[in-house]
Amino acid sequence: MIERAFARLLPRKRTWSRLLDLAVFAAVLAAFYGLLLMGRAVLRVSPPQQQISQSPGALPLYAAESLIRIAIAYALSLLFAIAYGYLAARSARAERILLPLLDILQSLPVLSFLPGVMLAMVALFHDHRLGVEFGAILLIFTGEAWNIAFSFYSSLKTIPRELDEAARLYRFGTWQRFTELDLPFSAIGLVWNSMMGVAAGWFYLMACEMFVLGQRDFRLPGLGSFLQTAAGNGNMRGILWGLAALIGVIVAVDQLVWRPVIAWSDKFKFEQVSSEATPQSAVLNLLRRSGLAANFYRRALRPVNETMTRILAPRPLAAPASTRASRAARLWFWRAAVAIAAVGLGYLAIRAGRLLARLDPSDLAQIARGAGFTFLRVHASLLIGALWSIPAGVAVGSSPRLARIAQPLAQVAASVPATALFPVVLLVLIRVGGGMGLAAIILMLLGTQWYIFFNVIAGAMAIPSDLKEAARIFRFSLWGRWRRLILPGIFPYLVTGMLTASGGAWNASIVAEYFHFGGRTMVTRGLGAIISQATDGGQFQLLLGATILMAAIVVVMNRLVWQRLYRLAETRFKLEG
């Protein structure tokens, strides 16, 4: 009787569906309006100096602008990662070039290119704010894209053999295979690495929104510039207001975007026995009941998918003559592309060599010593991060109930830029004792441990339920479960997490070893400090030498360690029947 009475008070099904449609339409309209406002702002000529307000009333607008930059950079990162990872995984010839190139790209310290990128973009757009916006988005993109690309590539290389053979047997076209095998199998890894990529994007946003080079002011209004201005002035009240706004944005994005996507991606888990408990999302359940969302899928997405499937369906083999002609055309195209690239690289190498020739022996010795200190800090932070994130990630990924509690908290903690927390860390270390070297390790740890944690969660979630059930039936001990099930199951994801965490730690060293706080500059010996000091002082030969050495160290480590572990993941720890 009571339930029937309450049921009468609730909206009818048709009314409820219309309310959902209205909410979805309002959300889309609000997003479009925000983009329109930001577009009007960026088309104006930049003033000689941006005034960053420290009033809490400016935070809603700053939060919207930062969120739009992050979203645009993430969309570009996802498209790049899928295209790059697909080409590297599907073509052995391209893999030999693209995979080492991806190693180099993710190893390059993004922040050391900040001056050049900003100056080039401002010159390209004739001092419009649009140039600074493009420069910031480009640099945020370079902080988000690499771990997503590595994740997609790793997933494609570990697709079970029986699924690959089934796709060939049923003559799947390029688009059909991509939408029905490649993308679904990679979904869980893509989702969790996307979360980590966006979290890393907030780190780079801090530097991009608050960039000043000499007398030139490239600052952009946003949460990053608000927090950096507060930190530079020693304004703890402003730092706390900025952190509160940042955490509010992150929680909202987690509940409205990531939580529904995680619940949706769980259906792509490769298993033969359904899971006992699956992730849930109230927002996803509401969207599934929305008639507007269903009509959009039925009338827009499904026809596009069917059209692409027909266009890219397998066709009869062409005549040998036309095949030879097309192959010759492709060969000449690649030869021309390689020749143009070789000429461009040769020119850049000559210019770089002339710049490096200005380095004296004392500069070279300084760079070598700095590389040694930073190398030790990077691997100390990796070790500390792995010690806690592997067991914690397995626990969260194996328990949907625990994931519902821990995942939003971890997403908030990962998305809060380490540079925003660094002033608090410095204040604590100054009071209890501890040098800038220890503070640098803590900052690297804060910025990179989440790469490992989120990848381990994705790996634990991807372990099939039938294998877990088999481990229970055979009564594996705790060590037996880790040795025979958990570590082999998460191994490909763990390699991706450690690899991207390593590159992130090297990048974080630029901020961790050289920090402006309360009107003072706090420095410790290291390669990151050399890059930051060279940027401030306009010593471009020192900046180039330190950047090249940092990239070379990361590439060598990738060749000697991470690439071999990737091959091991593709062979011994590949999930297949």
Characteristics:
MetI-like fold, disordered N terminus, two-stranded antiparallel sheet, 80% helix, mainly alpha, two-stranded antiparallel ribbon, 2 domains, 577 residues, globular
Give a brief outline of the structure.
Helix 3 crosses helix 10 and helix 20 (527-537) runs antiparallel to helix 21 (540-571). The chain is mostly helical.
Q: How do the strands and helices of this protein lay out in sequence?
A:
Elements: H1 2-9, H2 13-42, H3 59-90, H4 92-107, H5 114-124, H6 129-157, H7 161-169, H8 174-209, E1 212-213, E2 216-217, H9 223-232, H10 236-265, H11 282-289, H12 291-311, H13 320-356, H14 361-398, H15 400-415, H16 418-432, H17 436-462, H18 465-473, H19 478-512, E3 514-517, E4 520-523, H20 527-537, H21 540-571
Antiparallel strand pairs: 1-2, 3-4
Helix pairs in contact: 3-4, 3-6, 3-8, 3-10, 4-21, 5-6, 6-8, 6-19, 8-9, 8-10, 8-17, 9-10, 10-11, 10-15, 14-15, 14-17, 14-19, 14-20, 14-21, 16-17, 17-19, 19-20, 19-21, 20-21
